[in-house]
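so im writing up the methods section and need the ABC transporter ATP-binding protein record in one place, dumping it here so i stop losing it
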Amino acid sequence: MNLTHDMSSSQALVTILRGEPRRLPVALALALLASLVELVPWVALWLAARAVMIGEPVLGHGLVAGGAIVLRYLLFTAGVWLAHLAAYGIIQRVRASLVTSLARMPVSRLRGFHRGDLEKRVITDTQALEPLIAHHGVDIINGVIMPLLLTALLFVIDWRLGLVALAPLPLALLIQVVMMRGFTERQAHYNDIVARMHEAQLEFLRSIGVMKLYGVDADSFRQLDRAMASHHGMTADYIRQLIGAWVGFVTVAQASLFFLVPLAIVLMAAGTLSLADGVVAAMIAAGMLKPWLALTQLIGQVSETFVAVGRLLSLCPQQEVTTGHLDEPLQRLACRDLTLSRGGRSLFRGLSLSLAPGQRVVLQGASGGGKSSLLELLSGQLVADQGDWLLNGYAIRTLTDECRARYVASVSQQAFFFVGSIADNLRLACPRQHESELWRVLEVVRLAGLVRVLPAQLDTDMGETRRSFSGGELQRLAIARALLANTPILILDEATSHLDNRTEREVLAGVRDYDPSQIQLVISHRPQAVRTADQVWTLTDGELTVTEGKSDD
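--- predicted struct ---
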């Protein structure tokens, strides 16, 4: 399923539907056939009414009508069943495609999505395809075909009745189109408000404990209340437009019935229309309204599906960018004319630096001054306004995530782990790493003794580990995982902040000795980190000062 970011919602929906080349077309064909068969009882009713008027038997007409009703039921049931199977198959393929896109998405782009928003797009928005494919497709066919067939039958009975029945429908459709103008954009805006309300609800529930400790839970509630008020206001506008369009269509469409019945009476009085034809014509005029009304009710739901598809496209691959090939030992790390602004504030401008293998740099500066941002540009989590980091002359932004991950490993202040054992987490970047190397790196970060006393040792589940380990021990486990990645560049962004001075000194020394050729960039404010550095970079008001370190080595 080849969905791309630059597709329109219509193009994407066509591509999605093509993912079911067998079951979906058969389902729609069965729905079309069921609609054709549904005309048979109406024809049988008309012929039966004429037979009654002339005293002929009507049993045969009744049997034909009954058989057609049963056949229509079987065809419609089979069509809906196949449509459901097609819908579930399509949803699974779309979700698989989105998961693949997320796995390949550049980290800098992925960071622009809130976790809750990603969950909504992958789960809820993909599920929005189900009603359209499983139900609405069949209903739309029936809603379009049946009124046309019944109108054709009215023309057969009497062309004047057919014209009267058909005349209000173009006006009704025009009213529907005019009143629903801009509905898709309004639907998208409505969905954005709903997403913000959900985020506000989650934030309220997540922070209510802390808020109560400081006695400011009312502020959090007011923020949620504003989000809900915005949601209610938009909902009112949304419903007003939808209901207005539907009522306008119904009112005009029903006018055909009010004109057709008096005309039928006039024609019968004039002797140009039989009683049987007039009664059946009135019944047909009333019957043809039902599929039309059902069709108008689907417009809002179909628009919602198009909005959901548009939201899915934001997760799809963008136009491929030519990537530089880099599969060689790292000889030189540099940045050239590096400039970055965030929130309208310049963090740094025109930075140009160079490092050789084996160098360790400690980066210092005030909180919020841009230290982490500088290194996040190197790890690919941000994209510079100008300039870039260069690996052997190749710009970081031109490399794929997979290529960059072979050169750069990063550990942040918050340690993140996945479901599985300690060994599974350590082997994240090296699935076949021998167990002896795992123990070696645990010795480096001073965790081997702690892991050995665990009942399952390396096979201990991370859920149990999180409960048993302190914040500093989890940080060291994250450092061990990064070391096992065996990258020529290692970033430690406040990754030792939870360690005491002695442990930090031992861990930094062990990390330095584990791979002496590795370039290590460390954000830390502690003097023991500075004493292990070859260079100290101090970032102040966007200006970077480089001084020689006081290495203990």
